[in-house]
Q: What sequence folds into this?
């Protein structure tokens, strides 16, 4: 049995049990919650490695639960929802989810996404424990800290998720180079780019953390029709 523990928050028992069967067959430990409130309470009591979260649940919606969970943890969260519009996907990612799968879903794809998110998250955590030789990246008033996996903005330390750090590390390592959304996704997520809208959402989150005016970014800029680049003001 895998050491990884997955929490499945889903109010439909048949779907919940079906997901559990596939996850157990993949050797994961599985816990269950019937609504968002149970999910938050169970997360606080157990050492959960990843959460699969439905959105439309009683007592506390999935969106509300994700917001509360993001106040205390950056554990990977995969949304599993019947809401399949682009707006719903962007909203789910914007409040802190790492991935989004639309119902009806392929159980094998769900298990693959679980593996991918766990691999990325724990690779990030392992790297953050390694001793660094001070190979920080400084551009303008920003310092990306490889050891602590955060960024210093005008002297203030700002926390980053593993995805945000991965994007910044890629772009800041090659200032002024333009990366397509596909390149960013495949490098940071470590898989073929299927839906790069999530890149746009994370770019917006990063801007809110590092830019004085996110609507007029000095550093993280879009190159229309191509992708994104991280501008080094000293090399303009």
A:
């Amino acid at each position: 049995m895998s050491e990884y523990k997955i929490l499945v928050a889903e109010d439909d028992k048949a779907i919940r049990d079906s997901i559990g069967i596939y996850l157990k067959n993949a050797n994961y430990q599985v816990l269950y919650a019937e609504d968002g409130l149970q999910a938050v309470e169970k997360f606080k009591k157990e050492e959960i490695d990843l959460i699969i979260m439905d959105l439309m649940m009683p007592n506390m919606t999935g969106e509300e639960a994700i917001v509360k969970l993001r106040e205390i943890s950056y554990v990977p969260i995969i949304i599993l929802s019947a809401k399949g519009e682009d707006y719903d996907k962007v909203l789910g990612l914007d409040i802190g989810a790492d991935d989004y799968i639309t119902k009806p879903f392929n159980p094998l794809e769900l298990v693959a996404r679980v593996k991918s998110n766990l691999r990325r998250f724990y690779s990030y955590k392992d790297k953050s424990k390694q001793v660094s030789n001070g190979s920080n990246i400084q551009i303008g008033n920003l310092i990306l800290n490889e050891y602590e996996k955060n960024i210093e903005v005008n002297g203030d330390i700002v926390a980053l998720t593993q995805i945000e750090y991965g994007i910044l590390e890629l772009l800041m390592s090659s200032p002024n180079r333009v990366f397509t959304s596909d390149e960013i996704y495949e490098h940071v997520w470590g898989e073929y780019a299927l839906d790069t809208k999530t890149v746009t959402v994370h770019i917006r989150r990063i801007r809110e953390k590092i830019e004085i005016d996110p609507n007029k970014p000095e550093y993280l800029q879009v190159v229309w029709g191509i992708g994104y680049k991280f501008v080094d003001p000293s090399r303009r």
